[in-house]
Amino acid sequence: MILALAILCAIIWIGLIFFHGKFWQAGPILRPAEAGRTHMDIAPHVTVVVPARDEADSIQPALSSLLAQDYVGRLSVILVNDRSTDNTGALARALPDPHNRLTVVDGADPSAGWSGKLWAVAQGVAEAERQCADGSGYMLFTDADILHAPAHVSTLVAKAQTDRLHMVSEMVELQCESLAERALVPAFVFFFALLYPFAKVNNPKDKTAGAAGGTILLRRDMLRQIGGIEALRGALIDDCTLASCVKQAGGHLYLGHSCLAKSVRPYPTAGDIWRMIARTAYVQLRFSPALLVLTVLAMIVVWLAPAALAFLAHGPAQWMGAATLVVSLCSFMPTLGRFRLSPLWALALPFIALFYTAATIGSAFNHHRGKGVVWKDRAYTEAIPNDGRALEQKSRRA
Questions:
Q1: What gap in Å lies between CA 226 and CA 246, rounded to an integer?
Q2: Is the pLDDT of residue 33 over 70?
Q3: Are 302 and 12 in contact (CB under 8 A)?
Q4: Domains of the chain by range and CATH?
């Protein structure tokens, strides 16, 4: 049995390394120089929609970075103040806006069947339609805790135009300063790439669809084609749901890493990162106990069993487990390099995987205890994924 487990682990890792979109690679990066490949003198109109709920700490630097974009085309920024209980809206309105780019919209309470963030985004899109009824150009969806380099919008549009893409998404640089962040945040990116290998997402012939919600540039005609934001209305993992809708509609996607956008949201403790994972882990599993069991078993076989075999088994099983463990640790090193961390952090990967597994189980417990998904004082206790079409959920105030 032990030898059979060692063989299974080795086979799985052979498949992951050679037949799973090279998920372990650092991933593609858009650089500002790529903006020169397109004729920016005919740059289309870009409307940026920023939903914000209680983001007083970051709203001014985030919006300032968008208002300071060097994009040569028309650029509009719509901040939707999503019923904030702090002075997010007032801080946004106080910002200097020499190019008259900013509009601040005070959002209404979510309608039935909508998640709070998507309801705010929908109000931003409605304002964008009011400002530009012809429906041309792009929408850029981003968060209120992200700083954008001046060339970011130009670079995104250049990529979309040059490669004739319908949607360009980037995983922004995440905070990695505290001990908890250094230990756990790189693995978040690593496991995301395992679930949504960038090469597969970017391949029009592959059904894999994924996106990172911090930066999503989307053609407005494609947004209309998929039925608008209403097509996602109850989605709790809205970025990947949007990507799925676009790809199902025949759209071409790009997903990569950003060197021009950075999140300023801190996760100073392991508890903060636990809550980030637990918030949507069970949603990702479609609230299925069976999928939860399979996921836990998969995490054990892929990440924990090789280490156990390497240190506790004997003979061929031990050597096979050790070789598999070395391969798994090496697969993590490109991600550590992206975060400018020592390769020695890879030695902690089995323990990090155990942490993520426990947080996923915790997410399921939260759901079955009635806590559901909680974010910004809103709780979502039910959601029914339906492969990218409208999702239904009941929401309540926490």
A1: 7
A2: no
A3: yes
A4: 1-23+271-380 (no CATH), 29-267 (3.90.550.10)
Closest CA to 173 of 186, 184, 160: 186
**76 in Cβ contact with 103 (< 8 Å):** yes
Cross-strand pairs, 50: 79
Tokens describing residue 41? 């003198």
Query: Maximum distance among all alpha carbons in the chain?
Result: 72
Taking a C-beta distance cutoff of 8 angstroms, is the pair 158, 33 a contact? Answer: no
Mean pLDDT lowest for which of 32-46, 52-66, 240-254, 259-273? 32-46
Nearest residue to 75 (alpha-carbon basis) of 160, 127, 138, 129: 138
Query: How many Cβ atoms are within 10 Å of 322's Cβ, its own excluded?
Result: 17
What average pLDDT does the structure give for the chain? 90
Nearest residue to 165 via CA among 264, 295, 255, 297 = 255
The β-bridge relationship of strands 46-52 and 138-142 is parallel
Give the Cα separation of 36 and 173 in Å (integer).
23
Indicate the SS3 state at residue 170. Answer: strand
Count of beta carbons in the 10 Å neighbourhood of residue 14 = 12
pTM of the model: 0.91
| DSSP codes joined into one string, 137-183 | SEEEEE-TTEEE-TTHHHHHHHHHHHTT-SEEEEEEEPP--SHHHHH
Percent of the chain's residues with pLDDT above 90: 80
* Length of the chain (residues): 398
Report the amino acid identity of residue 282.
Answer: Y
Strand partners, 171: 257
Torsion of CA 256, 174, 346, 9, to 10 degrees: -50
Mean pLDDT for 207-218 is: 96
383: pLDDT strictly greater than 50 = no
Query: 397: buried, middle or exposed (CB in 10 Å: 19+, 13-18, 0-12)?
Result: exposed
Closest CA to 69 of 38, 101, 92: 101
**Buried b / exposed e across 186-207, counting CB within 10 Å, b at 16+?**
bbbbbbbbbebbbbbbbeeeee
